[in-house]
Write a structure and sequence with these properties.
Condenses 4-methyl-5-(beta-hydroxyethyl)thiazole monophosphate (THZ-P) and 2-methyl-4-amino-5-hydroxymethyl pyrimidine pyrophosphate (HMP-PP) to form thiamine monophosphate (TMP). GO terms for molecular function: magnesium ion binding; thiamine-phosphate diphosphorylase activity. Its EC number is 2.5.1.3. Belongs to the thiamine-phosphate synthase family. This is Thiamine-phosphate synthase. The chain is α/β, with parallel strands linked by helices. It has one domain: Aldolase class I (TIM Barrel), CATH 3.20.20. The protein contains 8 helices and 8 strands. The chain has helices at about 25-35, 50-65, 80-85, 100-105, 120-125, 150-160, 190-195, 200-215; strands at about 15, 40-45, 70-75, 90, 110-115, 130-135, 165-170, 185-190. Strands 1-2-3-4-5-6-7-8 form an 8-stranded parallel β-barrel, surrounded by 5 helices. Helix 1 (about 25-35) packs parallel to helix 2 and helix 1 (about 25-35) crosses helix 8 (about 200-215). The protein is globular and about 40 Å long. About 45% of the residues are buried.
């Protein structure tokens, strides 16, 4: 069993970007606030940007994450990740298989895979995933196609694999405590950070509650 390219500490509080709440700010500014608040991992998720803008933004945010010593991965777009030398990628079940991604990226990059079932989780680990994102653990408005994953399934996935598992979907500072005892090493959030009026404070509060839940 190869060792993972990321650690459980790095996966404690994983921020997934979203442009929905930018207002008068740039994504760069919002990500920096989240990093100041204690985010430990950043995924750049862009569904609508053209390639050139995406690449430029990815390079800038990668440098920002480097400044805070936080891993930076790209959602879905393996080619962009290779082009700008991201720390890795996160892929869904409908994207490329982890094994194919690993061939393109090489052995040292981080690969995260979304999983909803024990079977998907075991297969992703077998194909070289470094961590799993499992959800939606609570109802969420951020992803229309997200299917709910019950606590029992989340726990079963954590027990079935030896790579780190993070929970995603509808998680807030108030409900994160309900995930205690599942076996996760951290959480991934979108709106709990980026929809907040005060991103830095929201991140700090969420981190404190997450630490309690994953102990």
């Amino acid at each position: 069993m190869k060792s993972s390219n990321t650690t459980t500490d790095e996966l404690l509080l994983y921020a997934v970007t979203d442009r929905a709440w930018l207002g008068n700010e740039t994504l760069y500014e919002q990500v920096e606030k989240s990093l100041k608040g204690g985010v430990t991992f950043v995924q750049l998720r862009e569904k609508k940007l053209d390639e050139e803008s995406f690449l430029k933004e990815a390079i800038e945010i990668k440098e920002l994450c480097k400044k805070y010593n936080v891993p930076f991965v790209i959602n879905d777009n393996v080619d962009i990740a290779i082009k700008m030398d991201a720390d890795g990628v996160h892929v869904g079940q409908s994207d490329m298989e982890a094994g194919d991604v690993r061939k393109k990226l090489g052995p040292d990059k981080i690969i995260g895979v979304s999983a909803q079932t024990v079977e998907q989780a075991i297969l992703a680990e077998k194909h070289g995933a470094d961590y799993l994102g499992v959800g939606a653990v609570f109802p969420t408005g951020s992803k229309d196609d997200a299917e709910d994953v019950p606590f029992e399934t989340l726990k079963a996935i954590c027990e079935a694999v030896s790579i780190p598992v993070i929970a995603i979907g509808g998680i807030t500072k108030d409900n994160v405590k309900e995930l205690a005892g599942s076996g996760i090493c951290g959480i991934a959030v979108i709106s709990a950070i980026f929809a907040s009026k005060d991103i830095e404070t929201a991140t700090k509060e969420l981190k404190v509650n997450t630490i309690k839940a994953v102990k």
